[in-house]
Hints:
alpha/beta; TIM Barrel; 10 helices; 15 strands; single chain; globular; 314 residues; disordered C terminus; binds iron/sulfur cluster
Amino acid sequence: MAAARWDSENRRWQGLCLTWNLWYGCDYRCPYCAQEMFQVWEKHSREHLGISIARWLQSWQRLYERRGCAAIDVIGGEPLRYPGALELLGGLAQWHRLDISSNLSVPLEFLADLTARASPERMHLEGSYHPRSADWDEFIRKIAFLKSLGYEPEVRIVAWPPNLRDIKGKKDLLAQMGVRCFVLLFQGTYQEREYPRSYSDAERALLEDLIPGIEWGYCTQERPTLGKPCGAGHVYANIRANGEVFRCSRDDKNPRSMGNFLEEGFRLHEQPQPCPYPYCNACGEHIFLWEDWSKQAASLRGPAAGPATLIQSA
Ligand code: SF4
């Protein structure tokens, strides 16, 4: 069974990583959300089969027994609004490391209950701040609450053009609190212009300041990837709310399902496979291109945490 560990320098989990669209319900309707832009909320909701919590837990335990502790990016929809979220997420944290992306719209009491079920070593929360729907002061109170318990929450803000106005001030304020803030490139259409390639020079300069080391080559310049070996499908995969598994989010438009995670016979690829796409602008998933991923893994020295060992906090 492959060992896995948290690479704190690069802030990456060196082991199996999975992105899980837990469900497609959300109390916000942000105009830059992919589900909203492509108007697929209803379509995706219909595809959600209402899978029981017991079945999900059984499948995640099976993965743990086969591949060890994985880092699971739990996204949605809004994961913390999922019916039974406390039972499901608390159960999962027995085996895996959770990175939950949440708009933090749930009450503070809910966060208190959640944190009582999973320690900071097993759970990490990323608060997505959405200026059109969330009150900044209330959002910050929840971030401060999580930080006071040792969860080291992080904040994400999408660089949708109207969000750029006071984004630097917010990032600076969070830095004063000791909270890391990540600005995400907007991928989509705004005022009939395609992003990220349509950012102005001034916006690009601001983003280079806000996103140190940004890889414009893959994100906006469509650097070729066709045929390159990629670990997507091997050390990474994208699981949908109905259990279907895809190598990466580029498969959104060309569905190439690898099978269903809930089936006993489902397996990830045994090794990296060639990328089937001309270029990779799939939400930063280019990090799984094997030339980069294997170099990173090889450069790590020292003891690696086995699957049953608690991992370092983020
Ligand atoms: S390089 Fe990018 S698009 Fe190609 S398989 Fe890997 S993650 Fe997907």
